[in-house]
Amino acid sequence: MWAMSRRAILAAWVCCAAALGSAQYQDYSRIGRTPEALSFLDEPIEVELKEPAWLFGGPDEDSPAEQLLLAQRLEREGKREKAVDAYDDLVHEWHATPEALTAQLAIARLESAAGNARKAYEADLYLLAHFAGRFELAPVLADAVAQADALAAQERGRTLHFTSNATLRRNYEQLIHFAPRWKRVPELLLRIAELYVDDEEFSHAITVCDRLVVDWPNYAGMDEVVSVYCRACRLQANVWRNDVGRLAHLERLLAGAQAFRPNHPERERFAQWQREVYLLRHDRAYANASFYDNPAAYSREAALLAYQAFLRDFPDSPHAEAIRARVAQLAAQARPAATLPQQQAKEPTP
Fold first, then answer.
1. 174 near 125, Cβ under 8 Å?
2. Residue 281 region, left (φ>0) first, then alpha (ψ -120 to 50), else beta?
3. Is 228 in contact with 197 (CB distance < 8 Å)?
4. Could you tell me if 303 and 293 are in contact, meaning their C-beta atoms sit under 8 angstroms apart?
5. pLDDT-derived band of residue 303, with 50, 70 and 90 as boundaries?
6. In whole angstroms, how far apart are CA 245 and each of 78, 84, 92, 311?
7. Which of 107, 187, 101, 116 is CA-nearest to residue 147?
8. Would you say the pTM of this structure is higher than 0.90?
9. pLDDT band at 83 (very low <50, low <70, confident <90, very high)
10. Per-residue confidence (pLDDT) for residue 296, from 0 to 100
11. Residue 209: how many CA atoms within 13 Å on its side-chain side?
12. Is residue 122 scored above 50 in pLDDT?
């Protein structure tokens, strides 16, 4: 009784696994469908407020107007670092004044001109966080992007990396957070996706590209987006090479990308990648089906179900002819076993 129950459970489990293998991730059957949310848009951005100094480091003048004149004079004299300090002291001491905005804009401009990408980016970010609506947005955003690009370029040029890709991504994410509908947001999302690929976080790159396709389908750089998308799909397949359902999902994404951009200059490469993912799925599915063809551990029914599921998904497989022969053999072996209890019941009792 227990042996029969165990075989039934195993057979049901094989059926379930086969069904999941073909149905899993069906909501993602083409590019751009049901993309995940970009979580960083909802995460709070905290940029520490500049506050007056308690004991040391305060402004040299007694009013914001006088301090601004001092900082501007230092700037005209070419004393850049002292001018930046004077402007910064003004922002700390008199944050709510019009002079503070002028001073913070000057800090961002001077740090940018000096090539101090990190300090210039932080100055721009401070403007976005604490002076929003009081200055022309586009130039500050453009400068912040330039600084974020410069920081990324610095890391690419180093043998030893001092800044993680997560930090570099965060630079772009923060700008999108403050200006989610800015016309250059697609560029920033593409940079984020590329950094995810560099970090071998391919599934996150796929999510970002998918969001790009949904929200900005007419973006001028969409061919580049699709290139990053397909590359991430192909590389993710190596990570998921033992998961038949997820490999099928990636196949669908690659097929969807080709349908979405049929004239893409790399379309032949995408088709080749789709074929490679198909072969990974085929080989894994064959290994899975063969696994159950072990009479010492599994019933014939389990092997039959596994092979039949394989043939449904891969009818043109090079293994198909041999598997059909094996299925016929297993079916023939299973038939006498099925009638054995009835034969025993008809035997006369001694």
1. yes
2. alpha
3. yes
4. yes
5. confident
6. 64, 57, 57, 16
7. 116
8. no
9. very high
10. 77
11. 31
12. yes
